[in-house]
Design goal:
With 77 residues, the chain is mainly α. It is 90% helix and 0% strand. It has three helices and no strands.
Length: 77
């Protein structure tokens, strides 16, 4: 499960970089009036990347807590 979470995190980061490059290109070619709406796409991608990164850390923390509880249960505490 951790591998899938890491892959999705990388996916959102790469997609954010690609859409940011596209948004800059559109801004340069079309100007601010038309191109500003394209900035929404990299913003969403980077927000999803941050959310996935945060949740991957929380999932690792939860797994660590469960391992500690399992070890305590095996020791009879």
């Amino acid at each position: 499960m951790e591998r899938i979470a890491r892959i999705m995190e990388i996916f959102w980061l790469v997609l954010g970089a690609l859409t940011a490059a596209w948004a800059v290109y559109v801004l340069a070619m079309q100007g601010w009036t038309y191109g500003r709406q394209w900035l929404l796409f990299p913003a969403v991608c980077f927000a999803m990347w941050g959310y996935r990164r945060y949740m991957r850390g929380r999932m690792a923390n939860w797994a660590g807590q469960n391992n500690v509880r399992d070890e305590e249960d095996r020791d009879g505490r």
